[in-house]
Amino acid sequence: MSELSRGLVQRAAIARALIHDPRVLLLDEPFTGLDRMAAEELRELLSEDAAKAGRPSW
Amino acid sequence: MAYAPNGAEAMRQLSSFEPTSWCWICDCRTRMESRCCSASGKRGPRSRSSSRRRNVSMEPLMDVLDLGHSRYLVKPYELSELAAAIDAAWLKDCGTASVRSGPSTTFRSASSRPNACGVRSKRRWEDHPPQSSRGSDSSAARRAQVDGGRRAIGWIGHQPQLYGQLTVRENLRFWASLYDVPESEFLLRKDSLLVSSRSAGS
């Protein structure tokens, strides 16, 4: 885990937050410290998840 | 000292509040048309569409947390305070049912900082602590409410909240155990989450 890049760790954090299939997802600047490309990828990942699961993200 | 507006005051603030005209970049508490950072040559305020993208929808959250009218009074950086309130007060120990009938969260407007929702919550919590259900017949049902309330919220913050000594799978298993996710459900969800996050990174 400690050998992973910041982007990969943040992806793991997203998986961690979704592991219990929450009804609502709260995001507090989740892209802090990421470069623009990584942030955009994660944004898309979260958008896809929100659309697929019908889960509001805030 | 009043830590939060009462219902009438909150409704008055809500009726006069224009969230899309607020400067969220410099946090200068001024309307973007007048003395905001854009006028002084700093970065300009976010656009209306950007603000909307950031706040997708609060309706389900209001349903869970009984935030009521506060949806227009909460700014993004107050999320950490919101999470602290959730963790400290109702959701952790009371569950969803008690959230609806218990103390309500009333956020102050952005112009009246500091946000004291935590203080108010803490005081209410101290004044009216929840009745313990240990040993009662309804303890199992209450436990189910607690678990349901806790599982309703997912949280992603600045920190990944993962243990560096563990692998990603071990971290996921650990968090799944915290939420009492059944093993079969965990295995199913873990694979799909890892695959989707990996494909997003490739």
Which structural traits does this protein have?
heterodimer, A: 58 residues, mainly alpha, 2 helices, B: 202 residues, 10 helices, 49% helix
Explain what you see.
The complex is a heterodimer of chains A (58) and B (202). Chain A has helices at 6-18, 36-53; one strand spanning 24-27. Chain A is built from 2 helices and 1 strand; from the N terminus they run αβα. Chain B is mostly helical and 202 residues long. Chain B has helices spanning 7-16, 48-54, 59-65, 79-88, 90-93, 95-101, 117-127, 139-151, 168-178, 183-201, and one strand spanning 153-156. In chain B, α4 packs parallel to α7 (117-127). Chain A binds chain B through residues 1-2, 4, 7-30, 32-33, 41-42, 44-45, 48-50, 55-58, and chain B through 55-61, 64, 76-77, 79-80, 82-83, 151-158, 160-168, 171-172, 175-176, 179, 181, 185-186, 189-190, 193-194, 196-198, 200-201. β1 of chain A pairs parallel with β1 of chain B, so a sheet runs across the interface.
What's the end-to-end separation of chain B, in Å? 54 Å
Shape, principal axes of CA atoms of chain B = extended
Order of helices and strands of chain A: HEH
Q: Radius of gyration of chain B over alpha carbons?
A: 20 Å
Query: Residue ranges of chain A: pLDDT <50 for 5 or more in a row?
Result: none
Helix content of chain A: 40-55%
Q: In percent terms, what proportion of residues of chain B is strand?
A: under 5%
How many β-strand stretches of chain B?
Answer: 1
What string gives the helices and strands of chain B in order? HHHHHHHHEHH
